[in-house]
Amino acid sequence: MGLCLLTGKKGKFVKSHIIPKSLTRPSKAGNKFLQPAAGSTTVRLIKRADSWYDKSIVIREGEDYLSDIDSYAIDELRAQGLLWSSDKLRKPATDLINELTIVNFNEPLKIRKFFLSLLWRAAVSSLPEFVGVTLSKEQIEILRRIIIGEMDDKLSVFPIILIQLTGLGPTHNFVPIKLSFNGWEVYRFYMNGLIAHIHLQNPNLLALMNPVPSDHPTFLGTKQTIVHQVKTENSFQLSNLKKLLRNDVFINEKI
Predict the structure, then answer these.
(1) Cβ proximity of 81 and 88 under 8 Å
(2) Are 197 and 125 a contacting pair, CB within 8 Å?
């Protein structure tokens, strides 16, 4: 029993995934993820059957909010061919390493709410693996109110850029990481071949020496969204994955 961090109501806590289980399933039933034991001074690996979950975030009503958000967004992202689990993966227009594609989401603000909810979950989680995701109390409260519909979303709050890896890659169970691009800090969420860069600063990011406003299609939330496409073999994600593998701290699928 406790106080739901999303609804503010008292009740029995339920299991809640930080990143939806359907986006981090092992490729075959019965396979496990190996991950470093949190707080261990040695490279001690433990097995995990699916993605990260926390039992101290939400009660049933709060989890229902998150489940509805997840279900809609995942169905739409798959329908748009942006996930490796899509029936048909969206292909780039050329054979270049980096490409752009225009995506017309049916309800872009609902897709945005999904990624904002991932940030909220990671920020409020008590799991030691998410200690690197930190937000102010004010930022957490803004996200909470947007998630449950108490506050209208503003595109200037945590602008989001989407990146699609255009080829299938290894199954994984990564936590979000914090990166800096030319002084702009982002949290990078990576799941099922789709990457979301959630910017911490208010927009007007610099691109090609010109400021980009938050309602530009570069950012998720408008009728049309520019999604960056990167060949998986040339991506930061794959090179980072190989680096972690060399250091024995890579969270990977094992039979």
Answers:
(1) yes
(2) no
Buried b (16+ CB within 10 A) or exposed e, 132-144: ebebeeebbebbb
End-to-end CA distance of the chain: 36
| Cα dihedral: 119, 124, 126, 130 (round 10) | 30
Sign of CA dihedral 193, 194, 200, 201: positive
**What amino acid is encoded at 81 in this protein?**
G
pTM for this one? Answer: 0.85
194-232: pLDDT as tens digits: 999 999 976 555 554 456 777 788 899 999 999 999 987
Match 């200037």 to its residue by tokens: 156
Residue where the block lists tokens 């030691």: 128
What count of Cα atoms within 13 Å lies in the side-chain half-sphere of residue 171?
20
Containing structural domain, residue 59: 2-254
3-class DSSP state for residue 143? helix
Cα distance between residue 243 and residue 175, in whole Å: 15
Which tokens in the block code for residue 186?
């982002």
Query: CA-CA distance, 212 to 226, in Å (whole number)?
Result: 13
Question: What is the bridge-based pairing of β-strands 225-230 and 98-103?
Answer: antiparallel
Dig out the tokens for 189 from the structure.
């969420």
33-82 pLDDT tens trace: 555 545 444 445 556 666 778 999 999 999 999 999 999 999 999 999 99
C-beta separation of 164 from 101 below 8 A: yes
Give the number of domains in the chain. Answer: 1
Q: Three-class SS of residue 142?
A: helix
Show the tokens assigned to 57: 């975030």
Dihedral sign (CA 16, 47, 188, 100): negative
